[in-house]
């Protein structure tokens, strides 16, 4: 499938946007709190060239790492509108994974005419209350190594690969996963580091857990939507990120994808194929 990157003018600089495929329909995909657009590469492959999948690097991440704050779901939603404008898309299916689900909800709430349908992937509805402690302690408990790596330095790419291969959620390793983690690196050996802004991660974590915009967007949700829930959690633990599916299923259709955890629901099968199918479902457009 054809893959390329473009830049889109946004407030304070340029957003990097990954594009897979060609032509219509153009669907928008939003990544998680410490991820990048390459989190969607396997899903894009499973779409098989059916239109275009557009995935921005949110400000503070990937190629958009240099864009200034403030951050938060409203800011990211406005950036997504800039992407849709640049691509000439008036309304489309929007999907979001993890924090991207919260961005997608706020996008649909603030700009309802731009969103025809939502596919929320293990993110978006309110999360269980965070553990007690400072925001930094909560981030460590919630994200573990994904957050801790932002202050770490790596001698070379192999060291960074090994760091991620030790993560319990990455039960298998693939070329897509390797590209995903390589894209996150910046700097010069032996001082390679993640491109993710620690301040962006912190502000976004506070907003998605305690901000008014995500909670109100969920309460006011009117767009057609589906929630795809990972069977297992952030660290491949048996308890999923969303332990109470009934609370969500009372609002929108929900499917739990067997054999997935919070990461592999995008980065491996069967999750990636199921997400692609939900995006491509012509009966739901």
Provide a short characterization of the protein structure.
The chain has helices at 41-47, 73-87, 99-110, 135-143, 145-148, 157-165, 175-183, 198-210, 212-219, 245-249, 264-267, 271-280, and strands spanning 3-10, 13-21, 26-30, 52-56, 92-97, 115-121, 185-186, 193-194, 225-230, 254-257. The chain is α/β, with parallel strands linked by helices.
Record keyword descriptors for this entry.
eight-stranded mixed β-sheet, AB hydrolase-1 domain-containing protein, 37% helix, Rossmann fold, AB_hydrolase_fold, alpha/beta, 285 residues
> Helix coverage percent of residues?
25-40%
Overall number of domains: 1
Low-confidence stretches: none
CATH topology grouping: Rossmann fold
Count of extended strands: 10
Secondary-structure map:
Blueprint (H helix, E strand, L loop, with lengths): L2 E8 L2 E9 L4 E5 L10 H7 L4 E5 L16 H15 L4 E6 L1 H12 L4 E7 L13 H9 L1 H4 L8 H9 L9 H9 L1 E2 L6 E2 L3 H13 L1 H8 L5 E6 L14 H5 L4 E4 L6 H4 L3 H10 L5
Parallel strand pairs: 3-4, 3-5, 5-6, 6-9, 9-10
Antiparallel strand pairs: 1-2, 2-4, 7-8
Structure description:
It comes from Phytohabitans houttuyneae. Keywords: Hydrolase. This is AB hydrolase-1 domain-containing protein. One of its GO terms (molecular function) is hydrolase activity. Helix content is 37%, strand content 19%. It is α/β, with parallel strands linked by helices and 285 residues long. The chain is globular.
């Amino acid at each position: 499938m054809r893959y390329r990157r473009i830049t889109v003018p946004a407030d304070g600089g340029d957003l990097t946007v990954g594009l897979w495929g060609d032509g219509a329909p153009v669907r928008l995909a939003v990544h998680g709190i410490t991820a990048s657009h390459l989190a969607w590469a396997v899903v894009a492959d499973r779409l098989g060239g059916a239109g275009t999948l557009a995935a921005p690097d949110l400000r503070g991440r990937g190629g958009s790492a240099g864009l200034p704050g403030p951050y938060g779901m409203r800011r990211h939603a406005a950036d997504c509108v800039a992407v849709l404008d640049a691509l000439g898309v008036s309304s489309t299916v929007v999907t979001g994974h993890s924090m991207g689900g919260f961005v997608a909800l706020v996008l649909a709430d603030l700009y309802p005419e731009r969103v025809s349908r939502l596919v929320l992937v293990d993110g978006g509805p309110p999360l269980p209350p965070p553990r007690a402690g400072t925001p930094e302690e909560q981030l460590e408990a919630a994200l573990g190594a994904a957050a801790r790596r932002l202050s770490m330095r790596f001698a070379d790419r192999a060291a960074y690969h090994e760091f991620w291969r030790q993560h319990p959620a990455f039960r298998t390793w693939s070329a897509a996963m390797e590209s995903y983690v390589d894209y996150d690196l910046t700097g010069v050996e032996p001082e390679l580091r993640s491109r993710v802004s620690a301040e962006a991660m912190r502000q976004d974590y506070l907003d998605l857990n305690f901000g008014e915009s995500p909670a109100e967007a969920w309460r006011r949700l009117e767009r057609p939507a589906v929630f795809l829930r990972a069977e297992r959690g952030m660290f491949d633990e048996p308890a999923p990120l969303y332990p109470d599916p009934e609370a969500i299923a009372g609002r929108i259709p929900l499917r739990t994808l067997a054999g997935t955890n919070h990461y592999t629901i995008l980065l491996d099968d069967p999750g990636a194929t199921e997400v692609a199918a939900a995006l491509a479902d012509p009966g739901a457009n």
